[in-house]
Design a protein that fits this description.
The radius of gyration is 16 Å and the shape is globular. Helix 8 crosses helix 9 (167-189). The protein has one domain (7-189): Rna Polymerase Sigma Factor, Chain: A (Orthogonal Bundle), CATH 1.10.1740. The protein has helices spanning 7-18, 22-44, 47-64, 75-93, 97-106, 125-136, 140-151, 156-163, 167-189. Helices cover 71% and strands 0% of the residues. By secondary structure, the chain is mostly helical.
């Protein structure tokens, strides 16, 4: 099994992408595309749309790499955020967002998502188990906003409204949860 990429290696790749290094962009794509595709697919529930949004997200990564600041977050969090925003934009443009929001709000009890990153990425039982453990290991107050944001495609404001929390609290819980997920899921990114 290949050694998992480190945050510093991904930071180096993204900084090289900012300098228009195509080889670094290809390496970053190889490392992050399977995970980003799984997240986008989970939001859009359409393989064709997810592929299209993934392409748009990587175009945006290429275009905005010079604005990346390592002191504000890891490449993993930065790229996940870009891909998530693209997927949410697609949901809105297709007028499916209202239906998805109603579904998410109808869920009375928070549940652990069975396969949070989609079946295309989680081919092995070992990886599926790692994701279940990582997501399940988050405190409920972090897990639920992450599920609503990344799996149901809700904006942070919609999550705040739906959960009756201040927007800043929702943002902080999502960020803390993502940082906690990065450590246990880091080995999984090497499987892509």
């Amino acid at each position: 099994m290949a050694r998992p990429p480190t945050v510093s290696e991904e930071t180096d790749l993204l900084l090289r992408v900012a300098q228009r290094d195509e080889a670094a962009f290809a390496a970053l794509y190889d490392r992050l595309a399977p995970l980003l595709f799984g997240l986008v697919l989970r939001i859009l529930r359409s393989k064709v749309e997810a592929e299209d949004v993934l392409q748009e997200a990587f175009w945006q990564i290429w275009e905005h790499a010079p604005s990346y600041r390592p002191d504000l977050g890891t490449p993993f969090c930065w790229t996940v955020t870009l891909a998530r925003h693209k997927a949410i934009d697609r949901l809105r443009s297709n007028h499916r967002h209202r239906d998805r929001m109603a579904e998410a709000q109808a869920e009375a009890a928070p549940e652990l998502v069975d396969d949070p990153l989609g079946p295309s990425l989680l081919a092995s039982a070992e990886v599926r188990q790692a994701v279940r453990l990582a997501v399940g290991g988050l405190p409920l107050n972090q897990r639920r906003p992450i599920e609503l944001a990344f799996f149901d495609g809700l904006t942070q404001q919609e999550i705040a409204d739906g959960l009756g929390l201040p927007l800043g609290t929702v943002k902080a819980r999502i960020r803390r949860g993502l940082l906690k997920l990065q450590i246990p899921l880091n080995p999984m990114r090497a499987h892509g």
